[in-house]
Amino acid sequence: MSAFDDLMAFQRETGALAQVAGRLGWDQETTMPHGAAEQRSEETAALESVLHARRTDPRVGEWLAAIDAGALDEVGQAQLRHITRSFTRAGRVPGKLAADLARLTSRAHRIWAEARADDNFAAFAPVLRDVVALKREEGAALAAGGDVYDALLDDYEPGATAQQLSDMFGALRPRLVALRQAILERPAPKPLSGTYDDAAQMALAQKLAETFGYDMSRGRLDKAVHPFSSGSGDDVRITTRTNPLDPFNCIYSTIHETGHAAYEQAIAPAYRFTPLGEGVSMGVHESQSRIYENQLGRSRAFTGWLHGQMRAQFGDLGLDPEAFYASVNSVQNNYIRTESDEVQYNLHVLLRFDLERALISGDLAVDDLEAAWNERFAADFGFAVDKASDGVLQDVHWSAGLFGYFPTYSLGNVYAGCLNKALRQAVPDLDAQMAAGDLGAATGWLRENVQRHGGLYTPREVIERACGFAPSEAPLLEYLEAKFGDLYAL
Amino acid sequence: MSAFDDLMAFQRETGALAQVAGRLGWDQETTMPHGAAEQRSEETAALESVLHARRTDPRVGEWLAAIDAGALDEVGQAQLRHITRSFTRAGRVPGKLAADLARLTSRAHRIWAEARADDNFAAFAPVLRDVVALKREEGAALAAGGDVYDALLDDYEPGATAQQLSDMFGALRPRLVALRQAILERPAPKPLSGTYDDAAQMALAQKLAETFGYDMSRGRLDKAVHPFSSGSGDDVRITTRTNPLDPFNCIYSTIHETGHAAYEQAIAPAYRFTPLGEGVSMGVHESQSRIYENQLGRSRAFTGWLHGQMRAQFGDLGLDPEAFYASVNSVQNNYIRTESDEVQYNLHVLLRFDLERALISGDLAVDDLEAAWNERFAADFGFAVDKASDGVLQDVHWSAGLFGYFPTYSLGNVYAGCLNKALRQAVPDLDAQMAAGDLGAATGWLRENVQRHGGLYTPREVIERACGFAPSEAPLLEYLEAKFGDLYAL
Asked: Does domain B108-490 have CATH number 3.60.21.10?
């Protein structure tokens, strides 16, 4: 066996163990008895400790040093690129810092949950200060002289820079603010009313997942408080939730998670358990969930078909197909990112991106964070935050130390905009197909051009190769302005 | 930290990883998508490989050598005894032999399943020959000069010897053969008829599990093709199955698995993730499942209460409480061990025990196994085996290399007989309590005297301490002869 073969065998075993950790996480959110929480945290910690030891195993460094990269094919070179990057990054963070961060964020998460329940940012601020301090330390170690925030961002979106994102987002923000203002001056669409049976919602969810190409023989659909997808390859599971008053919550959570899951299911089987065997970045992942959910799932054509499905499942909806389409795409004032619509969602994200960069750079002190949040919110959304749980305390991310994560949501939307443009060129009669409930060409195009590649190309590369043009925010803006201009008769 | 503390910290992490492997097994049998089977086998193998490396880690040997056993308390000495035994055993089996066995039994299992479907022992014989050869090799390595079969038995029942078991079983066999003959000359009890709703069976199963002291906040009940229990401590899960024509299958599978699970749930929390933190042997484990299922669950007193529960759940049963009790305890000719009753079950096991000892000693050739099985079966049961799937091919164990496992089933019954005798002395009004559906005193006595100790004492010790007398087959025989003598008016 060559050094490369040894390295890959070791990586595959590590990858298999990482999948096991994923199954454990799924179990925790769906089936674990509630009395098992404390014991489970020790089980998870034991497995994470094994994974950490493997990721920093000195043999990886020896194998990497012994490999002649020039002798490898494209796939081998991509594997080497991922492994080198991960190993280098893991080696830069001192073990003590990693352990301190794990302990601190576990504590910070508990404090955040209490502070949110009490609407009391001051109770969270001290521990968040400590988290920011350690994340700056970690970022500096990872950056090795480069930009600290970029080094953190690289965990979620390899190769991206804050400058790049800032340019994109800077172009998005004023046009999104203008679009939402114009929309909110128009009459609100009539909402869906009535109550919707739980089991019938789950049956519809399963049908929708399969319609969007999810292979149920290699996955399953369960309920969870916060929907997620988990796993790669032949065991990719999705979760959704039901609310008797709001079937759209179940429907669009399901389609969103199906986008994530379809990506993981579609990756070339030869990449299983290797760094190429999972979605290449959070941004590209989100591009799949978002194009499934929004550009496809909330299109007039698809909602026309969905309207028929819902009538068959639930009887008269009190809305004709056009009113149903308007209801699905309703834009309203709201505080909460995760409940937001296509137009306002990115404004929520951009706010967090700007604030977290300022926290990491030191331009913004944690003590001033709530005021900065509220000021920016009022500027972009035109009304005031009423309480911390509707504002600065609404998201879990910062308590968990996830700095650099937020912008990948909007990058995913930007990429989805690009892919939608290219898809519509590749499949000219897409609307006619979707109106008949046929998503085969759309999901097939995404599978062929994006999903199957896994980690073979860099995130930007895979989008650019699929689209045939360099990714930018322009297609997303054009799509949103056209769609909502038409819907709200702007 | 002392060497002992280091060793225990390492063991706890290993124990936590072993629990993760258990969760993975539970998932595989209950929730895993069927298309994930191949990928899962790689995930399981990766985790097993980590566990194997830890169990044979040279540091364990160094810690063991550095520990002053005399300075440890009773618990510490018990930990040391378990760890030393496991480490010594693991070190005696060459890595290549362990790997060959894993590969071979995986293949043998597939061949066995096909041969059973085809009722063709000749198709299974060649690979079974190879399995026996490797198990003899493994047994010889483990025995280090001692008895080969005892060395294999020790995996499932530490400290037991074939001679000991043979003495017990030799006393059981003639009286069980005589008892079954006498019973089968009497009229058969009227069987339960009708069909029983699946969801109502599961609701009853949950109620029964809780009645027998299963803590549902630290466990869950699901369905599986072959019922099992899994896990230790605060996450112990049970499974059952339903058959619309035979609710007793669901009821007694559930109570049986509840016995296993209650044991694991009851072990002292301080032992979690250590060798003391799980049931001490297969025999003691089976003693708990069997006393829950049989001596308690199939008693006249308890079935009287159960009769009322079933009437409430399913309406008129067509049997009065006494006929219901007779139906629950019906003894009939059958081929299959797992479908057998209290009287005949041990005869099935004793047959396998004698044959597998002869296979391992070389006194019986695999080519002669089917004939030997059929001859013994006819001698003990008085009728002929009709086909291999009802005879020598019915059990999975030998294909999986589990030689030494079978006798623990009957040892468990023997121990259950002893515990039942002691329990009845300790709780004189047990029948009155059970007739009211109150199992609290019975399960509390077992928890206090057996279950909470986990691996603190040796298997025989824990039974002897609970009973106050040395375990023997006599109480089981007395119990069976009295119960069935009365039931069948012998």
From this structure: no
